[in-house]
What does this fold into?
Amino acid sequence: MKALVSVKRVVDYNVRIQVKSDGSGVVTDGVKFSVNPFDEIAMEEAVRLKEKGKVTEIIAVTIGGAKCEETLRTALAFGADRAVHVKEESEVQPLTAAQALAAVFKKEEAQLFLLGKQAIDDDANQTGQMVAALLDLPQATFASKVELEAGKATVTREVDAGLETLEIDLPAVITADLRLNEPRYLKLPDIMKAKKKPIAAFSLTDLGVTPGAGLKASKTAAPPKRSKGVVVKTVDELIAALKGKGLI
Amino acid sequence: MSKILIIGQQAEGKLSSSIAKVVSAAKLVGGDIEVAIFAKDGSGAAAEAAKLEGVTKVLQIDRAENDHGLAAIVAPQVVELAKKGYTHVFAPGTTFGKDLLPRVAAKLGAQQVSDVMAVLGPTSFDRPIYAGNAIVTVEAPAAPAVVATIRLASFQAVGSGGSAPVEKISVDVALPTHTRFVKLEAQKSERPELQSASRVVSGGRALGSSENFKVIYALADKLKAGVGASRAAVDSGYVPNDMQVGQTGKIIAPELYFAIGISGAIQHLAGIKDARTIVAINKDAEAPIFEVADFGLVGDLFTVVPELTSKL
Ligand SMILES: Cc1cc2nc3c(=O)[nH]c(=O)nc-3n(C[C@H](O)[C@H](O)[C@H](O)COP(=O)(O)OP(=O)(O)OC[C@H]3O[C@@H](n4cnc5c(N)ncnc54)[C@H](O)[C@@H]3O)c2cc1C
It folds into this structure.
């Protein structure tokens, strides 16, 4: 069974985000980029399923500019067998991304699509669900456990009330939550091997996708800053301070 | 004029408390506000929705398949309904809404606005990006419809003095059988619900075990507070996943928040940006949590917290 895993290049989760003074976005020049952490988890899950013999081939896919080749090389080092680069230099919104990813999924005749549940840049949490909708496939979002059997998957999901378990028929779309697994550290030989693995390139047009009207961002601002409060020395002082503000 | 369709999340016959906040956001858009309840038997939830101030009509769509609110089952019905002249489709920013709404948006051909935190106009909204470290103002195309999830921590619940009519309707679409509910393991707790509690006490990795978490519960019970946790505490198995607060857990806005043995990583802070007052207890005076805390106390939580609990 073929598994497709999408990976997105995002500002590293440790970077302190700075908003540009003209309000046109956040500072990305000279900033560290990494694979979206949730996508790494999706990638790791695919590799584990392959190690268990449930998946035979893993294809990594990304959408973005030339720099995203790095992202694909990381996915290949994790254990993807080959990669697909959908080349697009301008910003791609979730529905457009989903249309492109759905087209790749169809082309590859994959059975399983693993994605991160959200990307930590736009935090939209939409793409996996949209791909599933466009392909009329089942979806299991926010997965913390995945078990594959013949023709179906049993997935445990992290929901507000606790843990929900679904059974879905394959092909299907699954989005990874944090606790699905802990991604491995990449070893140098794997990174070297990844350099030789094939990457196929397409444009959105090749995939038959024309971006429609999207959301227009008019301004990006820093959130209201919380001011630093006071440090109290004792529990009694803390109680007095909270009482003083009528909080207890 | 706007005509807004709100997906009325429900479980076991009860309307989710999130809906009163979604109605609050919808009122800022203005126009007709209709709440649709997709359930096996939605009469209880529909009656609750009908009381929410600002709601003009409640639609009750009873169907056995709707029992567990599965996205793949509910989405085709929402899509069918949404085509009937609605300008907006809103859902709460709960795991239910986040799972369901993009599936609706894609079928309608709309780009979705996630986590609306301010309504500036019928098609203009603020939403957080980068774990809330930047706020972007977006203009959404009016056609085919504005599809958005509402960030609950940003809106006050509307009152329940209304009396909108409830209409039972059927939405005729074929539903898939490829997705089946197996079970829900829900934590039953007598404590206030994390997302609506006015006080919340959270513990972090420093607690060290689920056994030690009892010092957090004891303080919470004294304060009649809900209990939360950092990701590290959940990952370590001290507490269940539904207690995680942060970028990828619950976003909360209590009057009073205690961060105990929590360092204050940006992903955790993303969940408490709207807390009115933050109290931090940490043995490391340099911990980033002190940068945002209104009141900080440097000390060992295992002595400070029991003392605080006993003196309250
Ligand atoms: C993509 C992504 C998403 C994430 N989402 C979330 C999220 O939603 N929520 C979340 O919380 N995290 C999230 N994280 C994780 C986050 O980055 C931090 O790792 C996590 O919040 C740390 O938890 P902590 O503060 O409990 O642990 P630590 O950072 O280990 O802090 C423990 C603190 O306890 C203090 N301490 C130790 N012993 C004592 C004692 N005896 N008395 C008092 N203080 C003591 C220490 O000084 C320290 O400050 C996410 C990370 C990533 C990459």
Notes: Residues 78 and 289 of chain B are 42 Å apart (CA to CA).
